[in-house]
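Lab notebook, bench 4. The sequencing result for the construct came back, and we need a structural model before the next group meeting so we can plan mutations. Quick request posted to the team channel:

Model the 3D structure of this chain.
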Amino acid sequence: MQTRAPHVVGRDREVTAITGALAHTREARGGAVFLTGEAGIGKSRLARYAAGQAYDEGMRVLKGRGTTIGPMVPFRPIAEALLGLFRGEPPDDSALGPYKPVLGTLIPEWHDHRSTKESVVVLAEAVLRLLASVARKTPCLLVLEDLHEADAETLAVVEYLADNLEDQPVLLLATIRTEPGHALELVHRMVQRGSGRLMELHRLSQAEVGQMTAACLDSAPVPAELVDRLWTDSAGNPFVIEELLHGMVSGGLLVAGAEGWQVLGELKLPVPAAFVRSVAHRTDRLGPQGREVLSIAAVLGHRFPLSLVQKVTGIDDRELLSHLHAGVAAQLVTPDEPAPDWYAFRHPLTADALLAQLPPADRVALSSRTADAVEDLHPGLPGDWCPLVAKLRFDAGSRTQAGILFAEAGRRALSGGAAESAVTLLDRAQSLLTEDVVVRAEVLDTLLPALAETGEFERAFALEINDLHGLEASLRAKLHTRLSRVAYLAGWFTEGVEQVRIARTLLGQDAPDELAAQLDVNSAYLTLNIPSADRISSAARLARQAALAADRAQLPAVACEAWQLLGIIAREHDIDEANACFGKALALAGTHQMPIQHVYALVRLAGNEWLQNGSTASLGRTHAEACRAGAITVAHNVDAILALQSVLTGDHAAAAVEIERCLRTTTRLRFHALTRYLLMTKAVLAGHRGNRAETEDAVSEFEAVAKNGAQEYPLCFGLARAFCALLEENHALAMTELDHALALESQNPTTFHLSGTHGMRVLLGVLDGRFGWPDYQALTAASASEMRWNRQFTELAHAVLLGRDDRCDEALEAFQRAQEAAELYPLARHLGRRLVAQEAAAWGDPVSWLRSAEEYFHQAAIPAVASACRGLLRQAGAPVQQRRSGTDQVPRQLRGHGVTVREFEVFVLLADRMGNKAIGTRLHISPRTVEKHVASLIAKTGQPDREALSTYAASLGR
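Done. Here's the predicted structure in token form:
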């Protein structure tokens, strides 16, 4: 008979909490619940209860489990759960966008060999979006059992989901044993920061053991001595209670009679020996062949496929199913629904008990036979079979074979984006392959990039490469080349150069192209990041060497990398050459089916078109291509560029929304480089709005996350702060900011060219007399000055210089070219008109330019420039429209004192302790008028003197 409790006993608190969590989930207030406890304590029982409740409430239930066959397999529980969505009508994927191809790692139906490999965080975001999309129609319960057996990548996805399910109709319910390990540590961290609820299941009390016994036997009351013995021997563990009861009933110690259940004989049995004996007793009753079937299953793990067991035993279908059905009747195994052809032991302890009965020699033999059978059934050992056979070979005593298979499983895990699992597998391979230095070097060749992917840079350098005695120089050089790459990714550029030096010394003068190509491309990237006067030319020389060597050695991936770098370097001086380099990378990527290189080449070509012509059409097409390929990083990169374009084209409201949306995503996905770019764009937006406080806050936010020498940093000065200063009519400060941007670029050459050093700085330098014709020609020689944003300013500078030489017709033509370039950029166009108007009396129409600029800046609520335009119009003798609006710019406390808009403009400049002449120059009024405004301000604010008024202005501005 069955001796399992038909309902949950002793878990009222947990049942109430789960019921409440399900109710909240149906109201789109999801979250995570973690059930922890020792083996057999009832975690799975509660998970089944939750699934039943969810079904009854019309929710969708998805189930997955930690790997219980062989070593940990990346993403196994998540993939198993998501595949449940495809048993029937597949989910609507229309809302997933670029995240659908990313899910091909988990969902075979969505796999596309052309898609790119993204980080685990991106994959987790894709899982979150899929669950949210499904749950919008039907709330979901995601049950993940045995997370203590899950791989590091699965745990990373679980953490990400737990952190982001709060506003989704999805509940994550996970079970974990209370055994020391990464899973339990992670759960405690998540609970500590409020990302989930922990429910630790404790052992049943004696009274609850009695209730469970009565439920199992479907009888009340039950003999008191039975409850006492079960309480003593099980220590309140529900699984052990059921197993002991089954053993007692099947062994004739507990029998049902007319007056209920009766005890016959001595009940005392040692535990856990009692459990082992119970399992042994039941397997003995299955006969030798039945016992062998279950022993083979136990060798495989806690789950096993019938086809494999049949291959090992050689018995026919009828006999096999007969033994399995007997095992089910004996409460040893159960069908592993919904997986066809698979069974599972009722509890992991059952498999452990079976293995404990096997003599070592028998276990070795069974492991070897099972490994042979797997290799026959699954040639090439695809998927999970490779790490499983590695474990079986290890259990069979074949250390070298096991090591080679663990190494192959590690390589596959790394190529599939599961770097942490790769490290675990490769570490195991390395520990087994100690005899053959060549094979061990091959393992290290994969382990080093895996450690770089997981950020374990120190550990990579701690590997004892120099202890591989007898390894030939070329193989040793290859490992040092790998280390140079690790150093580059870690930002240890000097250490990377040292690794390059060691590799070159080992290779000598006649290095083969296949080694020299990768070494040169690594050296090029390192050189570009170490300050020196010739680093750009040196990096270009190395990259070109790498491209040629890679071409000869037929290494398309290395060649692509080299041509991409050459394109980035060429962009500043010759954009056509840059396009040619990116074109070569694109052709290589297309020919050799390298999707990530293909998309990166596309986005760089599209970026060049944007810089050169201001067109975003190619960027839009590239975004669509990146989405198709699942290249999430590239897609968000394009989003960030488009956000900056919105700032430059004056669509500030849309830019603000897009920047914040992108920042939320890039911060969550830990795209640090894109986050820096977006924070720079946020500073530019504030600067182009003329908001000094927001500009400084945004720059500070950027500095808080950026490393020294971040390539976006010059733009914070030249495109953000300098523009803010110009909109404050502080031209001297703007030039100072632009000089600072130039100094930063000199110290650390950048691949971003819109900081103003190739555009606005040229114009301001010409206007203030610092630059003449020789300077202008030198500063505009690079192709960066021909980029559309920069061109509008360099053409204005050209017009001013031509006008000073009385070449009026040519000056006007240059001005018209500037206006054509500026057509996309209304703020810059009107600012340019305001800046050159005073120079254009002889060759232009400064009055009409100033009128249009004044109207623009008045409507844009940028009073300083609007006021300057009015002042210049007065100086030109033109009638000026009076503007009475703008009082909202005056703080409330000053409006209460009756301070006017013009007085407030003076008040703001007093904060910098400026004199009357400087203020008058800034506002285009006379020093005497400034003095009158100052006297009025002192009287209205009640300050004793000008010094006190200046201090008050400074305090109010903070």
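The mean pLDDT is 87.
Will bring this to the meeting.
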